[in-house]
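Ticket #4471: structure export looks truncated?
Reporter: QA, pipeline team
Priority: medium

Steps to reproduce: submit the single chain below to the structure queue and open the exported record.
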Amino acid sequence: METTNFKIVSSNSNVEWTGRKVTGAHNGTIGIKEGNFIFNDGIIQEGNVVINTSSIKILDVTDPATNAQFAGHLASDDFFSIEKFPTASFDILTVREVSDSTYYLEGNLTIKDITHVVGFEATVENNRNNITLSGKLVIDRTKYDIRFRSGNFFKDLGDTLIYNDFELDFNITAEAIFSEQAKN
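Actual output as written to the record:
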């Protein structure tokens, strides 16, 4: 069996986020700090991704002062508490092959030191020395103590309501860092 460890290339990887509210949506990016994936015989077996929460950017708010205010709010305890929790992570627990290049990944998602099992489909292209992994993860923010303007916790929010689910669309590139042969 051939085992290959792929290290995430943060500069060639991106995560785009979208949060929705009654009156529209906001979107932006967030950076990947580090991570890796282990493949056995060309098939993903395990891995982890560490997100740098302090790298969150808002793309749809173009006024610099409003953007800075919004970014500060996302960094606050109302949302991601980035001073206390500078990273979030996803650790793969199980992998199920859906088709030749599509897998269902299930794992522990940790945000604000709160962990829940989540799952999603990811497309993986394996070119032996590098891989790309892409997919979309939908997260219920309230499970991670992000309750600001959630209809689950506050009444009569009207058009200030923020929906509980937010999306992370990711495109990750990783390069092989070593390869070893092992016999069963």
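Status: closed, not a bug. The export was complete when the record was re-opened. Leaving a note from the reviewer for reference: The longest helix spans residues 64-75.
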